[in-house]
Amino acid sequence: MSKSLQVLAGMTDFSFPEVNTLVEGRETARHKLQQAVQGILNDGSNIDINGKMYECYGTLDESQYSFACKCRPVDDASTRLWLKFYVENDTIHVAKEYQVLHSLQQEPATLSFVPRLVDIQPRKTLNGATCSALLIEMGTSTTFLHIVRGQMEKSSQFSVAHQLSRIVRALECLHSHHFIHGSLNMESILIFDNDKLKFRDLEHATKFNGDVHGCASASVEFQPPEIARRILSDGCEGSDGSSLSAAVPITASYSFDIWSLGIMILKMYSSSKHLDEFNGCDKPADMLKRLADPSFNFERSIALYVPHEDVKDLVRQCLQREPSFRPKIDAILRHPVLQTYEHEMALQLARSTIVVSQRSGLSTAKIRDDKTEYESTPPSLWFFLPPTEIGLDRCLSIDEWVAEMESLLEKKDSCESELEFPLLFMCEASTGFHRPCDSTGPYKSRLSVPLPLISLVVPLVQEAMLFLEAKAILSGDSALHIAQVSGLGQRQWSELIKFYRALEKMVLTTVSSFTLMMLKPLEEMLATGDRKNTHQVMDEVKYLAFTQEKRDYVQSLLEIIATSSATDITAAVSKSNQEWFGLRKCQVEIDDTAVNLCGTRWFCRNHLP
Fold first, then answer.
1. 155/159 Cα distance (integer angstroms)
2. I need a surface site. Which of 234, 415, 499, 505 has the fewest CB within 10 A?
3. Which Pfam families match (predicted)?
4. Does domain 144-333 have CATH number 2.60.120.1440?
């Protein structure tokens, strides 16, 4: 990190001018800076940023607050960067962009969503123009708008969900670090190397509960009603017509971005056409007036453009006029639109894994295209156990588990066979918390999951863990340990946990970022030990595990696992389809408000009604 970045890491040497204190002369300063940067491009001269020389090239790009051009280090022509200049009047906006970029440089995962920050020079003079300079990684010229128009099949919900998933993950990255984007639109995201989507400009990014002073005219169509009302009540249009600001700032909320996300979904379906609701709006202020109208909604565009019912539901949730009614980003991750997409992606991965195994000679299984005849609503709460060669009856440390697994892997590799983990299906009772589950140990299934598919089972295991932990907390006076709740017993439970830790240490069990983002809030709620939070977690896990859509996914996953190991599931399940490896099928009453929940549950003997 350069010296200037180290100085700015705590934002200590950045002085932020008060809003509007430097408005006078801003346009003069911007014109002067524009001429200075254009002169550098015309002359082909190099520019010094903190002692390092860069060659500027291409055309000058202008945004609401900055001027930008392409550049590359004089000593490294292969590196392409983006050099942004801000006039002194707009120091607060370069500070905002710097703050969010700097905060998200610390973790490799977050760099998948924001450009790499290279350097910053808080104060620089170019031919008499005082400015700040920001140097960042440069993406391609392809925006999300181009993707929607050229790569998305709007008639396919899967295609829409694929692109939507990328946006939601990027937005979750910002929100999890307590930033709101503030100007989300179809051109605020660019394609970078390896087809990664990253936010283009973060000049409007604001810390949660910080001050939002207005919006850019270019993103007015995406602004929520509460911002529109504030700007109209005491705001003014900038002299250059590019921004609309409010005299009294509004407190930044994640709900701002959720509304913008809803508009983006509509735009994805309409190929970014001007939405019908804004017909006749000639100026940004006209759009703000429409948005501020209490009776205004987007039902016409939803009906006209969106053919998929699940997506319509998500759009309507995002476009709630009352900010507190809009879902948080983790709730959007759990919405059926994205859940169905993630499940389908997982199944595609599983099928491709089997094909690879067949080609490499590790598997003789064939993927069946016909529908299976076995139970159509199998259990959704799974564990996988250590390979039968090791079992759960020993007492090992985590390091000893690692040694045992490494030894077994070597043996399997030498004989070109696949390492397999027996599956264990858990009782799904969400009442009777004071009663421990019947021992499930004897009911280990004949099904085993091969190592290449283990990552697909891990999310089911994590959901089962949350479910059992919630039951243990809610057992009240009985004070049941999670081992009793599981039915495994204390010693076997302890060995199972150490076994899982060993697999994590060996990096054999990887979890998708989607799953981590979705389950992390629930884990944090359970950690409080609060019963109200625990009841909420229990309800959330029910919606993750017991919907018909999830049962269908589990059935497909079971078929793939069975075909990969040439196991006949129907031979292991009772002919009446009422029992499943020691669990009995029951029907429970579902509340009318519990939309999409399946009434089928699988109970152990201790929890049969």
1. 8
2. 415
3. Pkinase
4. no
Partners of 129 in the β-ladder:
126
Q: Is 189 helix (H, G, I), strand (E, B) or coil?
A: strand
Which residues on neighbouring strands pair with residue 132, listed in sequence order?
A: 86
pLDDT of amino acid 365 = 44
Residue 278: φ, ψ to 5°? -105, 15
**Residue-wise over 297-312: b if at least 16 C-beta within 10 A, else e?**
ebeebbeebbebebbb
Q: Which of 548, 602, 585 lies closest to 428, judged by CA?
A: 602
Among the listed residues 285, 281, 288, 183, the one whose alpha carbon sits nearest the alpha carbon of residue 237: 285
Angle at alpha carbon of residue 64, lines to 63 and 70, rounded to 5°: 25
Retrieve residue 484's tokens: 């009793």
116 secondary structure, DSSP code = P
The 8-class DSSP code of residue 439 comes to P
Residue 459, exposed/middle/buried by CB under 10 A (0-12, 13-18, 19+)? buried
| CATH 2.60.40.10 describes domain 3-137 | no
Cross-strand bridge partners of residue 585: 602
Tokens of 451: 């190592």
End-to-end CA distance of the chain: 63
**CA of 567: how far to CAs of 323, 346, 374, 572, in Å?**
51, 21, 13, 9
The model's pLDDT over 3-46, given as tens digits with 9 standing for 90+, comes to 444 444 444 444 444 444 444 488 899 999 999 999 999 998 89
DSSP code, position 22: T
pLDDT digits (tens, 9 = 90+) for 418-463: 888 999 999 999 888 888 888 765 556 678 888 888 888 998 999 9
What length does the chain have?
609
Decide: 38 and 72 in contact? Cβ < 8 Å.
no
- Whole-angstrom Cα distance, residue 82 to residue 76? 14
Instruction: List CB contacts of 545: < 8 A, sequence separation 6 or more.
Output: 380, 381, 428, 460, 463, 467
Give me the DSSP letters along 368-432: --SPP-S-SS----EEE---TTT-SSS---HHHHHHHHHHHHHHHHHTT---EEEEEEPP---S-
C-beta atoms surrounding 230 within 10 Å: 21
Helix (H, G, I), strand (E, B) or coil at 216: strand
CA-based max dimension of the chain: 86
CB-hemisphere CA count at 13 Å for 216?
19
- Among residues of the chain, what percentage have pLDDT more than 70? 85
323/16 Cα distance (integer angstroms): 29
For the range 365-369, what are the long-range contacts, defined as Cβ-Cβ under 8 Å and sequence gap of 24 or more?
365/563, 365/564, 365/565, 365/566, 366/563, 367/560, 367/563, 368/559, 368/563
Alpha helices, DSSP H only, in 415-547?
A: 454-473, 482-486, 490-505, 513-527, 531-545
CB of 523 within 8 A of CB of 313?
no
- Which three-class secondary structure state does DSSP give residue 65? coil
Token couple for 275: 């939405």
